[in-house]
Design brief:
- By secondary structure, the chain is an all-alpha fold.
- Helices cover about 50% and strands about 0% of the residues.
- A two-stranded antiparallel sheet has the order 1-4.
- It is globular, with a radius of gyration of 24 Å.
């Protein structure tokens, strides 16, 4: 990893959020603010106002702006603990995960109470809180779960604190990303992911350079989207090249993302298990243990269905992607060693997804005579919906990675059909002809227990 540092240029997206905050809260310069040529722009004690956008917006400063301002009434430890306690009381699944993850050292709530943040990160957490209650609650939830996951990995108390701090700060890099790419209703195209993939590295630099935390905290922030099998981002680190605290935060972030949905523990377990090797076994077992605490039944909640792609279309898209990738690899266009390496890696990942398609039982829906429920609120239909969406996301991950690594016009042209196929989870007819030799999935009888292995299949 390059040892790049903050360049002290004022990020306009962060400045916009800071000045929006300043309209309702007092944001003060804690010292004189100078540009890179030592010209004073703002005096110590100046209250930041919207008109300061022109003064600061296009400047490169002597010190980072974040290190030169403080906020009156910023998020503090007391608010974090109060929010965490409320979330635990409100969310039964979160409470079960905490009970299933008890280990050495203080409780997650007690560890949150010991955290301290400087002016820069307190301001960033306050911006997150003012962006919406759900954003701040997500941050606190990830911090709680990060400590839980660290306990499941049997990390030391110091490393548990590292994971908790990284959980609180894991998304501060997103404050520097154009909000248009973060909108919930925005479907990112593969090439647009470059704007998002940068946020773990930005977060690491902010933590390392603006706070006095151990470097391990910044590293865990950097790694919170990495995966144990090397399929994550931004550096595709794998195995023990990901720090234990980073592994804990990565699992916590995924789990937190489904806790507000129906049947969250089942969703989380399926998401953690669907691609063997993405997460350490201990982290998966934390959810399995919490799920065993859950009373039988699921309250009749209907599964959520995202998108209209059928299982059959998804299967043919996977098979067509493998054939397309192999044709590109065998053809005359992919000449450079790097291009061939990227293609081979992509094909290997798609083949792993194909195996996951079969291991989850989705292949049973390819049998025209199957009598499995499509949407009845039961366990089988629920797992079908969740497994389908998880596989769709992983295909899009591969499309994103190919787009990010398309460094030359030739690579962009070569990868384009494969990227489109991997990203196209609509219900439109496939533009590419399905493979001539029809793959023969391993159709099997469903086991008496669900794929996640936690509940018996019900009628």
């Amino acid at each position: 990893m390059s040892e790049s540092t903050l360049n002290n240029a004022v990020n306009r997206h962060y400045l916009d959020k800071l000045l929006a905050l300043a309209e309702n809260m007092e944001v003060l310069a804690t010292e004189d603010i100078f540009d890179a040529h030592s010209k004073k722009l703002l005096a110590k004690g100046t209250r930041l106002l919207p008109e300061h956008r022109e003064i600061l917006g296009s400047q490169k400063l002597k010190k980072p702006l974040e290190a030169c301002v403080a906020l009156t009434g910023a998020v503090d430890t007391a608010l974090i603990v109060a929010t965490a306690a409320r979330l635990i009381n409100f969310s039964a699944p979160l409470g079960r995960i905490l009970r299933a993850s008890q280990g050495a050292g203080p409780s997650p709530l007690a560890m949150l109470a010991e955290m301290e943040f400087g002016n820069a990160t307190s301001t960033m957490l306050t911006i997150a809180k003012c962006d919406g209650v759900s954003a701040f609650e997500h941050t606190v939830t990830v911090a709680l779960l990060s400590i839980c996951m660290a306990k499941k990995l049997r990390l030391t108390e110091a490393d548990q604190m590292t994971a908790g701090l990284a959980g609180m700060l894991h998304d501060i890099g997103e404050l520097y990303v154009d909000p248009a790419y973060l909108a919930h209703d925005k479907r990112l195209q593969p090439h647009e992911w470059a704007h998002i993939v940068a946020h773990p590295r930005i977060g690491q630099m902010l933590v390392n350079e603006l706070e006095s935390f151990p470097l391990a905290v910044g590293r865990a922030v950097f790694e919170h989207h990495e995966r144990f099998d090397g399929s994550g981002y931004p550096r595709q680190r794998k195995g023990n090249n990901i720090s234990p605290a980073g592994q804990a935060v990565a699992a916590a972030e995924l789990i937190a993302g489904v806790l507000h949905k129906d049947r969250p523990l089942e969703r989380a377990e399926l998401a953690l298990k669907i691609m063997p090797g993405e997460f350490a076994h201990e982290l998966v077992s934390a959810i399995s243990s919490a799920l065993r605490m859950q009373e039988s039944g699921h309250g009749g909640a209907q599964p959520e269905f995202h998108g209209a792609e059928s299982v059959e279309r998804l299967f043919w898209r996977i098979a067509s992607a493998i054939e397309t990738g192999n044709n590109l690899l065998d053809g005359s266009t992919a000449k450079s060693p790097l291009t061939r390496e990227l293609l081979a890696q992509a094909i290997g990942r798609i083949e792993t997804i194909e195996r996951a398609f079969i291991s989850t039982g989705l292949d049973a829906y390819l049998d025209q005579g199957h009598e499995l429920p499509l949407c009845d609120g039961g366990t089988i239909a629920f797992e079908k919906a969740v497994a389908t969406r998880e596989i769709q996301w992983r295909l899009r991950d591969i499309a994103r990675d190919l787009a990010l690594h398309s460094a030359t016009p030739d690579q962009k042209s070569i990868f384009a059909p494969l990227i489109h196929l991997l990203d196209d989870d609509t219900d439109s007819p496939l533009k590419l002809t399905p493979p001539k030799a029809e793959p023969k999935p391993v159709l099997r009888a469903l086991a008496p227990t669900s794929f996640a292995g936690s509940q018996p299949y019900g009628a």
